[in-house]
Amino acid sequence: MGERAIIGNASHSYRVEEGWGKRPDGQAYGYTHGICVDAEDNVYVHHTGKDPVLVFDPKGKLLASWGEEFEGGAHGFYLHQEPDGKQFLYFTDTKRSLLVKTTLDGEVLLEIGTPDRPDLYGDDRRYIPTDVCVGPNGDIYVADGYGQYYVHQYEASGQYIRSWGGRGSEPGKLIEPHGISVNPRGPEPELYVADRRNHRIQVFTMDGQHKRFMDHNLDLPCSFYFFRDEVYIPDLDSRITILDAEDRLITHLGEDQQAYKQKGWPNLPKDYFRPDKFSSPHGVCVDSQGNVYVAEWISDGRITKLVRQG
């Protein structure tokens, strides 16, 4: 199909750039979980294998690799630019039950472990953080997506503030809060939580009060990327969803409603995969030109670049 493969719709069309982000050493990725882009449009890939952080330029040239401490536990991945322009990476490590803040070249600046909440966590109640975001005031929010299903809020220093959530489907409750992000598009910021096993997004105030549900055009939402007045959502059930400023559907990219129904998914035979179709999108980001990068949850990884055409 080559570079002529085009996906999307009339307002959002993309050329599939095959082979982008291949490791020059020929090694495979581990599970590619997270992907983000910095102010210079360099792309950071977070995966569970050797050298868990790989940094590429926009053309796919490898610039750096590091982060051996995340091997086997790489999951949530977020790049935050502070008001002074400084940029930092935030990680959640499912293996070590840890949140980590680093510089763009990997210097560790902050680590936050299991919250000091013996009422929530104990020997048989593990904390397994899956995503992280930072609010406009610097507060850090962590989603315990594979543990006890809480959201935890901290000051920028790491000082604990509050928690909310817990297993359930009623307002304020969560089942697998896999992703978390700040919606900056309205009159005041909001927290979007990918309430994945409830098949919805749940929206909260910045202090954890339930505001509303979003349950249209979603199946298993993983996380979010806000770009201009749109939000891009990797849906594990085989598509990227783009919503407009009012959270109405613009398009699904690369949708394959058969992929996640296949025996052995997500680790399917290599001859199943097609350049213009996704199988298990887990992370997404968008660069300054509107190009989209997708990381898929597959044992030896898969990264796709979509070049914006219209």
TrEMBL record:
<dbReference type="Pfam" id="PF01436">
    <property type="entry name" value="NHL"/>
</dbReference>
<feature type="repeat" description="NHL">
    <location>
        <begin position="165"/>
        <end position="207"/>
    </location>
</feature>
<dbReference type="InterPro" id="IPR011042">
    <property type="entry name" value="6-blade_b-propeller_TolB-like"/>
</dbReference>
<keyword id="KW-0677">Repeat</keyword>
<dbReference type="GO" id="GO:0008270">
    <property type="term" value="F:zinc ion binding"/>
</dbReference>
<dbReference type="InterPro" id="IPR050952">
    <property type="entry name" value="TRIM-NHL_E3_ligases"/>
</dbReference>
<feature type="repeat" description="NHL">
    <location>
        <begin position="278"/>
        <end position="309"/>
    </location>
</feature>
<protein>
    <recommendedName>
        <fullName>6-bladed beta-propeller</fullName>
    </recommendedName>
</protein>
<dbReference type="InterPro" id="IPR001258">
    <property type="entry name" value="NHL_repeat"/>
</dbReference>
